[in-house]
Design a protein that fits this description.
- The protein is an alpha+beta fold and 114 residues long.
- It folds into 2 domains: 1-41, no CATH class; 47-114, no CATH class.
- The chain has helices at residues 24-45, 64-88, 101-106; strands at residues 2-5, 8-11, 54-57, 60-63.
- The strands form 2 sheets. A two-stranded antiparallel sheet has the order 1-2. A two-stranded antiparallel sheet has the order 3-4.
- It is extended and about 50 Å long.
């Protein structure tokens, strides 16, 4: 997998990049690898000053920091999609932001109400 961060090519080696994953574990491992590679690239290539440099993203000029915020929100969006797919498949949803309703029940406690 190759992608661009700050106009530099960043290579991430993901095993079986051209095949369909056979398990949730394989998907999670790939995500962890790509996330770690991205963090390393950001640490090496970005500075506080580059967060204010204007970037052209999808035809719009915006500061680099806003582009990173958009990337983070995009990842959060996909995390939400995965949670919905887990529920639809009858699978246990992992506690992403703390215990799930099922986790509270398993601990013998009522889930907090909002």
């Amino acid at each position: 997998m190759i992608y661009y961060i700050r106009n530099k090519i960043v290579k991430c080696s993901v095993s079986n990049a051209t095949s369909v994953p056979s398990s949730a574990e394989e998907i999670a491992d790939s995500f962890r690898k790509v996330s770690a590679d991205t963090i390393d690239a950001l640490k090496q290539q970005w500075t506080d000053a580059s967060l204010s440099e204007m970037k052209n993203v999808f035809g719009m000029d915006m500061p680099g920091g806003i582009m990173l915020l958009m990337l983070n929100k995009h990842i959060i969006h996909h995390r939400g999609q995965i949670s919905v797919l887990f529920r639809q498949a009858g699978l246990r949803v992992p506690g992403i932001y703390g215990p799930t309703r099922q986790d509270w029940s398993q601990m013998g406690m009522d889930a907090p109400t909002i």
